[in-house]
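G., the chain you wanted modeled:
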Amino acid sequence: MASQARKSGNQTGHCAALSLHSIPKLIDIPPGRKCTVLLKNTFIHLPRVGKVTERELWESGVHTWDDFIAAESLAPRVDGQRDYLKSLIAESQSKLDEKNARYFNSCLPSRDMWRLYADFRTNAAFLDIETTGLSPETGYITVVGVLDSEGYSSYVYDENLEELREAMEKYDLVVTFNGTSFDLPYVEHHYGRMFQDMAHIDLRYALRRAGYSGGLKSIEARLGVGRPSSLTALSGYDAVVLWGQWTQGDYKARETLIRYNAEDVASLPALAEIAYNRLSERLPILCPRLAPLHRHDIDLPYHEDVIERVTAIRKPSRLLA
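Predicted structure as C-alpha cells:
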C-alpha cells in the first residue's frame, strides 16, 4: 500500500490577500443567471468557436449551454451550423453528467483547461515526482507524491511504485506544476501510458496567464502558499542527494525526501484555486470565486540536521529547478 498521511485538518495561512487585476466590462446577465459552474458557460470547446465568438454568444444573451440549446438564432459566425452545435452541447452536458473529463480534455484548448477545475477538483490527483535526473532516458523516478481529497500518498521506487498505475485509475483530473514537460512524460516513459483517460491542468501555464511566472517555490513565496521555512531551502538536486543517502541506509534522509515531495503537492490545490479565480475574474461573465477545498495537514516527519547537511554540500551548477 502507498505510504500515506491521511490526517484531517486545515492548513492555515494558505494564501495571502490578493490585489485584483483589472476586470473587463461585465456582460449584463439578468438576476438569477449568474455563472455558477464555469464549464457550462463555456463554448470554446465547440468547432469554429474561439474567444471572439464565445464573447459574441455571451453578449447576445447566450450565457449557458441551456441558453444555447434554446436559442432560435446564434452569433453570425456559427448560426449556419446551429443544429450541429446544439447536438454537441447536448453531448457536452451528457459527458459532464458522466464526469467524463477525457472528453473535455480532447476538445478544450490546452490554454483553457483550467476551466475544468471547479467541476472535477473533488476527484483530482495533485501529482509531483522526484527523480535521479532531468532526462527519463538516463534517470529514474524515486518518489511519486499524490494528494487527493483524502490526503497524501507516496509511491516509492523499489517499494510500491508499481501500484501507481492502479491508483491513478480512480481520478478524473490530474493537476501538476510543469507536468506537461516533465512529470507526466517521465512517468509514462518508465511505466507506460496511464493518464490518457484523465484531463490534465498544468498550473505552470495557468499561473503564468494569471500573472505569476517562475518556479513553484518562488510562486508559493509570492502568494504566501507553502512549506515550513527550512524545507524551502531544498532543491531538486538536494532531492537527488537525499535519495542517495537513503539508499546508503539513512532513514532520516528517506523521511525528509518524502516530506519534501509532500510539500510540493500540498500547495497545488491553493495555487489551482488562485489561478482559477484570477482567470475567471477576467472573463466578461459573473462567476463567483471558488471556495478553498478542505486542507489536510502534512505532518510527516523531516529532519533539520539532514537539511543542513544536504544544503551544505550542494553543487550550485548542478541544481535541478
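The chain has one domain: 29-42+108-318.

Shout if anything looks off.
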